[in-house]
Amino acid sequence: VQLQASGGGLVQPGGSLRLTCTASGITFRNYGMAWFRQAPGKEREFVGSISTSGNNIKYGESVKGRFTISRDNAKSMVYLKMDSLKSEDTAIYYCATKWGSTYPNWGQGTQVTVSS
Questions:
Q1: What is the mean pLDDT of the segment spanning 107-113?
Q2: What is the rounded CA–CA span in Å between residue 39 and residue 90?
Q3: Please, which pLDDT band fits residue 103 given cuts at 50, 70 and 90?
Q4: What is the mean pLDDT of the segment spanning 44-61?
Q5: Could you tell me if 93 and 110 are in contact, meaning their C-beta atoms sit under 8 angstroms apart?
Q6: Are 7 and 101 in contact (CB under 8 A)?
Q7: Contact criterion met (CB below 8 Å) for 78 and 50
Q8: pLDDT band at 48 (very low <50, low <70, confident <90, very high)
C-alpha cells in the first residue's frame, strides 16, 4: 500500500492550497480516507475524513468551514482544499486510509507553511 501526499508549500495568510493524496496497492473505493496534521511540538490532529462514497464527511473543529475534503474513486485520489489559511495551519499534513475506527495505512506527509 502506498499513499503519496502532494501539493504542500508556502502560502500567505488568507491564501489557499489543495493537497492531493494518491493511493496505490488497495481497492481505493473500499476505504474511507482521512487527513491529519502535526505541527512542531504538538500532537497529531484530526483534520477530516470522508467515507467510501464521499457522502459522509467529518471535519475537525479547527478547520470547519475553511477546509473541504473530496475524493475521486476512479483516480484513487483524495483531496484537501484549504481556504482562509492561518499561521496555525502550518504543519505536516498526512493522508491515511480509514477502516472502521482505525487508520491502517499512512502517507509520508507534505509540509504546509502559512507565513507572510
A1: 96
A2: 6
A3: very high
A4: 97
A5: yes
A6: no
A7: yes
A8: very high
* φ, ψ dihedrals at 7, nearest 5°: 105, -5
Alpha-helical runs (H) found in 1-116: none
> Looking up cell 467529518, which residue turns up?
58
For the chain, how many residues are written?
116
Give the C-alpha separation, 47 to 62, whole Å. Answer: 8
**15, three cell numbers:** 491564501
The DSSP secondary-structure symbol of 106 reads: B
The kind and range of the H/E element at 57 are strand 57-59
Q: Find the helix or strand (DSSP H, E) in which 110 lies.
A: strand 110-114
Q: How many Cβ atoms sit within 10 Å of the Cβ of residue 68?
A: 16
Mean pLDDT of 44-69: 97
How far is it, in rounded angstroms, from Cα 87 to Cα 114? Answer: 5
